Every structure is written in structure tokens, then in C-alpha cells.
Amino acid sequence: MVVCVCNAIREQDVRAAARAGAMSACQAYRALGRQAKCGQCVRFAREIIADERTAA
């Protein structure tokens, strides 16, 4: 599933960044070499990161 259309970031990319230590959407995007643009994806990215943190 696509999380961020502006940056073509997929859910699996955000999950991998979270597993690698990203604690926020901004950190995850930086780890992927990108940054949020319009911001509509940030809430969903946060949910994915929180899900990965609880699963760890």
C-alpha cells in the first residue's frame, strides 16, 4: 500500500524504517532520504510506526 504519494513511499518502507529505529514519521522519511511534502500521509505513517513499536 502507498503511504505517501508525493514521495512514492510504501507501507513496507515505513515499517522497515520503524524497525530500524525511526520513532516518528519525519525520522522514517529521513531514513528513506525523503521528507514529507503535503503532510497528508503523516498520520498514517505515525500509525504504522506505532504498530511496529508495539509489535517489537
Topology of helices and strands:
Blueprint: E1 2-4, E2 9-10, H1 11-19, H2 25-31, H3 42-55
Antiparallel strand pairs: 1-2
Helix pairs in contact: 1-2, 1-3
Domain BFD-like [2Fe-2S]-binding: 2-50
Organism: Stakelama saccharophila
Pfam families: Fer2_BFD
Description:
By secondary structure, the protein is mostly helical. The protein is built from three helices and two strands; from the N terminus they run ββααα. It has one domain: Arc Repressor Mutant, subunit A, CATH 1.10.10.1100. The protein has a two-stranded antiparallel ribbon with strand order 1-2. The relative contact order is 0.24. The N and C termini lie far apart (21 Å). 54% of the residues lie in helices and 9% in strands. The longest helix is centred in the C-terminal third of the chain and has 14 residues. The mean pLDDT is 95.
Give me a quick take on this structure.
The protein is mainly alpha-helical. It has helices at residues 11-19, 25-31, 42-55, and strands spanning 2-4, 9-10.
Largest sheet: 2 strands, antiparallel
SS element count, helices: 3
CATH class: Mainly Alpha
Radius of gyration of CA atoms, rounded to a whole number: 10 Å
What is the residue-averaged pLDDT?
A: 95
First-residue to last-residue Cα separation: 21 Å
How many domains, as an integer? 1
Output the helix-strand order: EEHHH
Keywords: 2Fe-2S, Electron transport, Iron, Iron-sulfur, Metal-binding, Transport
Protein name: Bacterioferritin-associated ferredoxin
Domain BFD-like [2Fe-2S]-binding: 2-50
Family: Belongs to the Bfd family.
